[in-house]
Amino acid sequence: MTSQPYLPLTVKGSRPRKVLQLPALEVRQGDGSTLYSFAVDGKQLPFFATLSRIHRDDDSEIQGYQRPAVLSHIKAIRRYIESDSPMIPNALVIAFDKRVQFEPLPGAPHVSYTRHGTISIPISEDEADEDKPGWIVDGQQRSAAIRDARIDSFPICVTAFIAESDEEQRSQFILVNSAKPLPKGLIYELLPGTIGTLPPQFQIREFPSRLLYRLNFMVDSPLYHLIQTPTNPDGKIKDNSILKMLENSLSDGALYFFRNSQTGECNEDAMLTVLKDFWRAVSIVFPEAWDKPPRQSRLMHGAGIASLGFLMDTIFDRYIRVRIPAEHDFAKDLTSLKTVCRWTSGLWDFGTHSKPKWNELQNTARDIQVLSEYLINEYKIRVWSTPVDEG
């Protein structure tokens, strides 16, 4: 194996460690961002960098940010690396903590935005992953293929940055991968724990994603663990269905009431109270359709979630003239619609020429519009003119 330029390093309070020193190029971008470009034997990557796969800790907090490894892709890269004259020109991206240092080389040629020097990386062959100084932000499969390949060494290019926090690493992960076919559900689940500027399409979903997270992982939520996300794959309701419901209500529905139109600030706790009260009422009024897979209940289906979201806004609109509705208000008004809903069996009666079977409704704009208008019209016929008590 190719020798590496190790230097001994003694860390106070621990056993002696080693430092990997490599020639590097420092590149300054924008108003303060700094990158480091260098090459390293890919077989050495596991000694100082880890793959941080996305998961939830015991407190349901998001940890890590890497998507699960694609084994078939790793095997294909490995076969290529083991072939004659392989070449991987694109660099891995690694986020380092502050233990990694760059020392400029005195007298080396430089320009205003770059300079030559040496990057020093502390390493250990038996260190736990969470104690390693580097996290692979982009290049998970390439690094795994090099690790497993039956070769002595394989130098690989690396672009690195030193991050202040795990939140900054997640932001960079989203930015690096936003132009690739990264699962949107993974990005949306990471959004609540990011900092810094993100692409506009992700900025507008940051707040709805935070509401979704709290609905999914607060134990007092009726939607607790029911929303399917990368870290909760057994959930029954698609995360995108909940996100669309939240976005609709934030735009001009019940949740919009808790937004400050001048500052853009949101009363998140008040929004969550309304959401939890409404969906708990739904679970009480329609127990036979609750907590079932979408193929067994159209209430848990994208069409049902979106339509009930619009109905929530309508019920809220009737009450807000007097007060904010509570769980028992939602339950009372929803009960009036129980006889016309066909979530798990029967035919929907949308009119003389439209009586689809319960499971023929699809998560399309047309079906959502038809179902929403039907539920809202039936609600207005049965309940709308009833006076609201002052509670």
Descriptive overview:
This protein is an alpha+beta fold and about 400 residues long. It folds into two domains: about 15-180, no CATH class; about 200-385, no CATH class. About 35% of the residues lie in helices and about 20% in strands. It is built from ten helices and 14 strands. It has helices spanning about 70-80, 140-150, 165-175, 185-190, 200-215, 240-250, 270-285, 300-320, 325-335, 365-385, and strands at about 5-10, 15-30, 35-40, 50, 55, 60-65, 90-95, 100-105, 110, 115-125, 135-140, 155-160, 225-230, 235-240. The strands form three sheets. Strands 1, 2, 3, 4, 7, 8, 9, 10, 11 and 12 form a ten-stranded mixed sheet that branches. Strand 9 (about 110) and strand 10 form a beta hairpin. Helix 1 packs across helix 2, helix 5 packs across helix 6 and helix 7 packs parallel to helix 9 (about 325-335). The chain is elongated. The model is unreliable at about 1-15 (pLDDT under 50).
Question: Which terms summarize this structure?
Answer:
alpha+beta; ten-stranded mixed beta sheet; 35% helix; disordered N terminus
